[in-house]
Structure formats: structure tokens, C-alpha cells
Design a protein that fits this description.
Blueprint: H1 3-39, H2 44-59, H3 62-77, H4 85-111, H5 115-123, H6 128-158, H7 170-181, H8 185-212
Subcellular location: Cell membrane
GO molecular function, one term: transmembrane transporter activity
InterPro entries: AA_ABC_transptr_permease_3TM, ArtM/GltK/GlnP/TcyL/YhdX-like, MetI-like, MetI-like_sf
Length: 217
């Protein structure tokens, strides 16, 4: 296999990895906020449910969660799902896993806000939802962005775990080519793809952090 063909195949796999990455963020970021708000709810039952959920997601391997989501419907309910279920299972597993991590980041950011801001907003006539959306949440995003960046960068590398469901993302393709050609070169090329994607995302997140640093000169 020529180097050009290998890079084209890896590039196609990288597009699938990027699909997992962006869809995971699309679903896990808002879900994480919802979980965080439920985790801070006045309802003891709701707080307990969210605490258990977060504990399970953070306390078990993501690869195990991928297998559970993919095989669970069949072994538990006898449901035979189509070929598209493989990709759906990957997105579901990644989203619910990362939502748990994002929820704790959101919670720490919300909890760090001074109580005086809530009181001042109430005196100014803001509702609870208006206070959160217009005053608290923008400041929370600024505070938690470095932690979010770390998780986003980790997600780039975690997309390679999709190989456990035989999904043809970049790492899976690199393994197949390496086994066929008995060469380590596909792994080096895959590492380069991951590194470049990682660098682009890190640069973008850094620019966002600087844009939100409105206290700087």
C-alpha cells in the first residue's frame, strides 16, 4: 500500500473520529448542565439519582459503557437493532459519560459564585431564571473554561475507544493497515492526525479563553 493511499484511508477514519467528537460535545455539554442543575436541586431524591449516575459514569471504564450500551438492548430485552445502532450506541455512551464530568465542572463553577450576586439581582427585579442566564451563567462559563478545555482534549483521544465496537474510526483503520502491512507506520501517521487535531482544538479553546478574559488590559 502506498503512503498516499494509507493517508487517504486514515483521513476518512479521522472524519469519523471528528464526527464522534463534535456530536459528543453537542449532546454532553447541555446534558451536563441539566445534570448539574438537578444535582443542586432542592429535591433530595433527584440529587441522589444524579449523584449515583455521576458516580457510575465516573467510576466505570468508558469502554465498558460502550459495550453495555451496544449489547444491552439485545441481552436485556432481546431487541435486534440495525447496523446504524453501532454509531448511535457510541454517541450515546460518549454523551452520557462526558455529561457526568461536565456536570461536576458546571456544579463547581455555579457553587463558586458569590451569594451576593443573587441577592443584588433579586433587588434589581431579575427572576431566578433571568439571574442565572444573564448574570451567573456567563461568569460560570468563564471560570470553568480551562477545566472544560481539559475534558475536550481528553475526548479527542478517547474517540479511539470506538474500536471496541469495531467502528471504523481512525485508530481502528490504523490497526487494520498495520496488521495487513506489518508496519508501524500507520500508527505514527495516526498519532500525527491526533496531534494536529488536538493542537487545532487547543488553539481554538485558548482563543475563546482570551476572548472571555474581559478583565485583561
Amino acid at each position: 500500500m502506498s503512503f498516499q493511499v494509507m493517508m487517504m484511508q486514515l483521513g476518512q477514519g479521522m472524519l469519523k473520529s471528528m464526527g464522534i467528537f463534535f456530536l459528543t460535545l453537542l449532546f454532553s455539554l447541555p446534558l451536563g448542565l441539566l445534570v448539574a442543575l438537578c444535582r443542586m436541586s432542592k429535591s433530595g431524591i433527584l440529587r441522589t439519582i444524579m449523584r449515583v449516575y455521576i458516580s457510575i459514569m465516573r467510576g466505570t471504564p468508558l469502554m465498558l459503557q460502550l459495550l453495555a450500551v451496544y449489547f444491552g438492548p439485545y441481552y436485556l430485552f432481546g431487541a435486534k437493532l440495525g447496523k446504524n445502532w453501532r454509531f448511535s450506541a457510541i454517541i450515546i455512551a460518549f454523551a452520557v459519560n462526558y455529561a457526568a464530568y461536565f456536570a461536576e465542572i458546571y456544579r463547581s463553577g455555579i457553587g463558586s459564585m458569590p451569594a451576593g450576586q443573587y441577592e443584588a439581582a433579586r433587588l434589581l427585579g431579575y427572576s431566578k431564571s433571568g439571574t442565572f442566564l444573564r448574570i451567573i451563567f456567563p461568569q460560570v462559563i468563564k471560570r470553568i473554561l480551562p477545566a472544560i478545555t481539559n475534558e475536550v482534549i481528553t475526548l479527542i483521544k478517547d474517540t479511539s475507544l470506538s474500536f471496541s465496537l469495531a467502528y471504523a474510526e481512525m485508530f481502528t483503520i490504523a490497526k487494520q493497515i498495520a496488521a495487513k502491512e506489518t508496519s508501524f507506520m500507520p500508527f505514527l501517521a495516526a498519532a500525527l492526525f491526533y496531534y494536529v487535531f488536538n493542537a487545532i482544538v487547543a488553539f481554538a479553546m485558548e482563543r475563546i479563553e482570551k476572548a472571555m478574559n474581559y478583565y485583561s488590559a
